[in-house]
Design brief:
about 775 residues; Isoleucyl-tRNA Synthetase, domain 2; four-stranded antiparallel β-sheet; RNA-binding
RNA sequence: GGUUGUUUAGCUCAGUUGGUUAGAGCGCAUCAUUCACAUUGAUGAGGUCGCAGGUUCAAGUCCUGCAACAACCACCA
């Protein structure tokens, strides 16, 4: 053996495991399986520390595999809708292009190729960290069979009356060109102003003066004595000179501002609700490109919100409508992707009625069918679930599966189309105006997006021959909105295990055996995005939860407790670290001393310390072998096997020296405590105890003592060493397996490899 | 505005159901070393366990209040 451990042969060890089929479980109906679905990484992303935290799952997986459970860890890759499109658009920008330069088919193909380049890289990197994933069951989110399932789920939801289109206020990012769900909006504190504007006899206070051009009412609290008498009258909207009603609404606070609020139903969620109850008009003043449109006086058209604000405030001031301006700090929603302010705007979108899905998901958590670790996330989950609102499942992006709905252009001539003509010029307009100038085939092949009026008729099945059942025309176009990426990944445990949405009884053997899975481990930041949706879909489609336990872990921070980010320059690359110190050292450093569900603190110092530990194990093993060689010289018939192994008789307590007894007792204790700690997800404690046991109890005390003893130490020495390697294997698989393979060449061992060896049992003295 | 978490050695953090002199890694100090490992060993310095009360024979650990920090949720102008 070399003088120090080298991680150079890790690849060799991994392929040893892979070739032996150790990652693929044998389905045995008499045994209870253990299974984890890997939170599917973005197929386009190179590995980062977040992925290195999957180590926790590998520890559980390796532990259960050694316990003898049929154990499945199923890997996958996610096309990651908006995330990936955003990254690709930045690439386009570097080349001097934008998404508007391509028809959607071409753009889709380009992104597809872009992702394919990186997809295998991502798999290779997870192998580097030693993840014992069953690659024979790898799935990619855009596989045909997965897409079939997703479309089938949509059809089922539609048939159950849970899908509808509506034109509500959505969180719209004009830069990304798409709507987002509430979860994708980041609230940031912004120092701004409160503008007081005179509307005839009233003065309103607002943070968004520019939207006044779209006001359709002024609201006051009906109990407000100052304004009661004005309810039912009208006031003149400044700059626009439109008469708008004064309405009474209980939601208005008497204390805030002036107690009178301008109402802009098309650009404010609160105002939208008020407009619905009071049947007010909706005047949308911004288009989906972010600029003010023809619904405002000519001089205000074509402005972005910020510019429009400056103009409107200036004009209000000169005309004497601006009473005063106060400093005001408040929360403003920003796009989680590009960081720009979200524009609340009315837009037609596809929605999923969530109540029927949420109720069983709430029940399941309350009844403990799905458990949470740590427990506090159960409350977070229930709070969110109980206040859940209908889910906007449509996104106006290209990268992802299109919503399976088709419009007949002849039946819906008011559909707005954006497409590239033969000369690559962008053409926009409603079909009624365009149909005589362009052929349907030109429109279809150059199509970027369509926008169907909210009352447009659609089909959820593409009829044979693409013939409209109503007008028998052939001008059908599929909805260009794509699914929210979580609509797909929310069904991930079902899709990857081969659940058949159309015919559940016909699902695969994997599904029947491994579903519900045992544990879902993920970072808490996608508890609502992903975990909650998986529970809802799982219960909706199969009546069973997709996993019995949700294990939430925290994020990786640097030694100062700061979140890693490129801009801070404190990012530690797991691949660089595993290259430098070995994957084992990195893995161990990620769990060592970390309390359950608290932040993972990573620093190079810590990784180096664990590299030293890995080397210590290597050298202790080397020393044991050297000692054995020495004894063999004097006694060639020496039995070279751990005494705990089959075929070697158990010994009486009296046969052991005090130091033997002491180390064997410690070994028994560490076996018990490791079982206990792994059973309750205390990986940090388990690794710390093992570290202490091996380095101090075994190396510093027992081995030091063994130096002064004869061949009789061999059975105990080997027993403790082999069992230590087993206990440590889930944490540091490479070094333990390397040593085991070397030991096997020299001594008599029952089992071929550590990865599939049996988990240690406490030693019973005869 | 609502919720949750954190506060223990110079730094980063452990500390299971309350039980003797409170632990680890890194860092620091002194010493050792042709010895499996300098990616080593031994010894040591360093903590009124955020603050104030309370329960208990006993509290870092349970309860109450306070403070600081962090995160999450949230349609209030």
């Amino acid at each position: 053996m070399d003088k120090s451990y080298s991680s150079a042969n890790e690849e060799q060890i991994y392929s040893l495991w892979e070739k032996s089929g150790a990652f693929t479980p044998k389905i045995d109906k008499n045994k209870k399986p253990f299974s984890i679905i890997l939170p599917l990484p973005n197929a386009n992303n190179p590995m980062h520390m977040g992925h290195a935290l999957f180590t926790v799952q590998d520890i559980l997986i390796r532990y259960h595999r050694m316990l003898g459970d049929p154990t499945l860890w199923l890997p996958g890759g996610d096309h990651a809708g908006i995330e990936t499109q955003f990254v690709y658009e930045k690439e386009l920008q570097k080349q001097g292009h934008s998404r508007f330069d391509f028809d959607r088919q071409t753009l889709y193909q380009q992104i597809w190729d872009f992702v394919e380049k990186n997809r295998t890289l991502n798999q290779f990197q997870m192998k580097k960290l030693g993840y014992s994933l069953d690659w024979s069951r790898y799935h990619y989110s855009l596989e045909p069979q997965i897409l079939d399932n997703v479309r089938a789920t949509f059809k089922k939801l539609h048939a159950d009356g849970l899908i509808y289109r509506d034109e509500k206020i959505v969180n719209y990012c004009t830069h990304c060109g798409t709507a987002f769900s509430n979860l994708e909006v980041e609230h940031k504190t912004v120092a701004s102003h409160l503008w007081y504007i005179k509307y005839g006899p009233l003065t309103v206070a607002t943070t968004r003066p520019e939207t006044m051009l779209g006001d359709t009412a002024v609201a006051v609290n009906p109990a407000d004595k100052r304004y009661q008498h004005l309810i039912g009258t009208t006031v003149t909207l400044p700059l626009v000179n439109r008469e708008i009603p004064v309405i009474g609404d209980k939601s208005i606070s008497l204390e805030f501002g002036t107690g009178a609020v301008k109402v802009t139903p098309a650009h404010s969620p609160e105002d939208y609700d008020m407009a619905k109850t009071h049947q007010l008009d909706f005047i949308r003043i911004f288009d989906y490109d972010g600029k003010s449109n023809q619904n405002v006086p000519q001089k205000y058209q074509g402005f972005y919100p910020k510019q429009l604000r400056d103009q409107v405030v200036a004009d209000l001031d000169t005309a004497g409508f601006l009473e005063k301006t106060e400093d005001y700090t408040h929360e403003v929603g920003h796009c989680y992707r590009c960081g720009r302010p979200i524009e609340p705007i009315t837009a037609p979108q596809w929605y999923l009625k969530i109540d029927k899905l949420a109720q069983p998901a709430i029940q399941a958590a309350k009844e403990g069918k799905v458990k949470f670790f740590p427990l506090r996330f159960k409350k977070a989950y229930l709070d969110w679930m109980e206040n859940i609102r209908d889910w906007n499942i449509s996104r106006q992006i290209v990268w992802g599966p299109q919503i399976p709905a088709w419009y007949c252009l002849d039946c819906n001539p008011q559909i707005k189309l954006n497409f590239l003509d033969k000369n690559k010029n962008l053409i926009s307009g409603v079909y009624a105006d365009l149909k005589d100038k362009y052929s349907f085939d030109d429109i279809k092949s150059g199509l970027q997006s369509l926008l169907a009026p909210i009352d447009a008729k659609y089909l959820v099945d593409l009829p044979t021959g693409e013939t409209c059942p109503h007008c028998h025309g052939h001008h059908l176009l599929q909805e260009t909105d794509t699914f929210d990426t979580w609509f797909l990944s929310g069904q991930w445990p079902l899709s990857t295990l081969g659940f058949n949405v159309v015919d559940p009884k016909n699902s695969s053997e994997d599904f029947h055996y491994f579903y519900p899975t045992s544990v879902m481990d993920t970072m808490w930041d996608i508890l609502f995005f992903w975990v909650a949706r998986m529970i809802m879909f799982g219960l909706y489609l199969t009546k069973e939860v997709p996993f019995k336990l949700v294990h939430l872990h925290s994020r990786v921070v640097d030694a100062k407790g700061q979140k890693m980010s490129k801009s801070k320059g404190n990012v530690i690359d797991p691949l660089v670290m595993s290259e430098k110190y070995g994957a084992d050292a990195l893995r161990m450093s990620l769990v060592y001393g970390i309390a359950p569900a608290s932040d993972f603190v990573v620093s190079e110092d810590k990784i180096r310390a664990q590299r030293n530990f890995v080397n210590k194990i290597w050298n202790a093993s080397r020393f044991v072998l050297m000692l054995i060689d020495k004894f063999k010289e004097t006694d060639p018939s020496l039995k070279l096997a751990p005494f705990s192994q089959r075929g070697i008789p158990l010994q009486r307590e009296g046969d052991f020296s005090p130091s033997d007894l002491s180390i064997l007792t410690s070994l028994n204790n560490i076996i018990d405590s490791t079982n206990r700690d792994l059973g309750r997800y205390h990986f940090g404690q388990a690794s710390e105890n093992l570290y202490q046991f091996f380095w101090h109890d075994f190396c510093d005390v027992y081995i030091e003592d063994a130096k002064n003893r004869g061949p009789e130490v061999v059975p105990v020495l080997l027993t403790v060493l082999i069992n230590s390697l087993k206990l440590l294997h889930p944490f540091i698989p490479f070094v333990t397996e390397s040593i085991y393979q070397i030991l096997r060449e020299n001594i008599q061992l029952d089992e071929d490899q550590l990865i599939t060896s049996s988990w240690p049992q406490p030693i019973k003295f005869g």
